[in-house]
Design brief:
The protein is mainly α. It has helices at residues 2-20, 38-64.
Length: 65
């Protein structure tokens, strides 16, 4: 059963890769490397990661008590 699952996964990956590649146009016509709003998104992710780290610390301290 595993070889069939692996083959299906590889086929899906190949299809997604082929579907997501864009070969038309020149490099200057393609979309910018960084989408607009990316820096704000990075800040939100960093804030969320900090909140998770604080929650983990709080949980660890509560477990010690």
């Amino acid at each position: 059963m595993r070889p069939k699952t692996a083959a299906a996964s590889l086929a899906a990956l190949a299809a997604l890769t082929a579907g997501c590649t864009h070969t038309g146009g020149t490099a200057s016509q393609q979309a910018p490397a960084t989408p607009s709003g990316y820096s704000e998104m990075q800040k939100k992710v960093a804030a969320a990661e900090s909140a998770v780290a604080r929650a983990d610390q709080d949980a660890a301290q509560d477990a010690e008590r």
